[in-house]
Protein: EamA domain-containing protein
Organism: Candidatus Magasanikbacteria bacterium GW2011_GWC2_37_14
Amino acid sequence: MLWLIFAIIPAVGDGLSNIIDGHLSNNKFHNPWVLLFYSGIMELLFLPFVLLYRLPAIFSFKIMLFFPIIAFLDFLTLIFYYKALKEDDTSIVASLFSLGKIFVPVLAFFVVGERLSPLQYLAFFVIIFSSTLLTASSSGGKIKFNKSLLLMFLSSLVHSIEGVIYKYVLESVDWVSGFVYVTLFSILGFIIIAIIKNKEVKKQFNTFKTNFNLVIFNSSIAFIASLSSVIAFSLAPITLVKGIFATQPFFVIIFTYFLSKYFKTNYKEKMDKGNLIKKLVIFTVMCVALIFVIE
């Protein structure tokens, strides 16, 4: 069950990181590309700690080609995600990552041949359906969904494809090499962003300096979560790992409650009694389904 520990770490870590992302995206950095640049650069500062553990190996050209693809897909995932944070509650945005998980079992079956039991698939879809209900609202007898639905559909779909490709690569490489090479290719992406968005990056540099402690704290959490997820992918079927990730919104609610109670900061999260009960009921259903997923 070691994989379960490494799968829970990203769910908890990203839950806290989601809240900070929402705060930075809505109140500090108005351009998602600029936020991606500064956050990504801070994450790179932690890479030497992984290199101290083990250096990456050299692989065939075919395998090496996958690393820039994974890095690019990760960029797209984050851009759609940052934009969605401007449209809806942080916990709801986090839950919408489950939309893309519909494609994970299908992609994992065709790419790496993973199979789960029918009960596990059923529980997995209960988690997805429960998460999707969070975005629904009724007006004039019609069910409507927030704009975040489309943005997070794209984000989660790209993220799912990225995860399956990552899992495929990890069948041939160790997790250290996989993580390091993807991170190194991300550097190229950050350089491209700095060139294309040069004016915006310079314009918001003072914002970055003012919020440096928060950005680097958030980046450290994101780095640990990302590293743990790669280890989890190397130890267990991607469908199970992604199923654990689906509990992330539950931790968003918990962290938001305590942060809003002790820190006077505007977090994009509806915490009134009605919305809170709705979210907690749906998250409870997700947790019950999760028990069947991991058995």
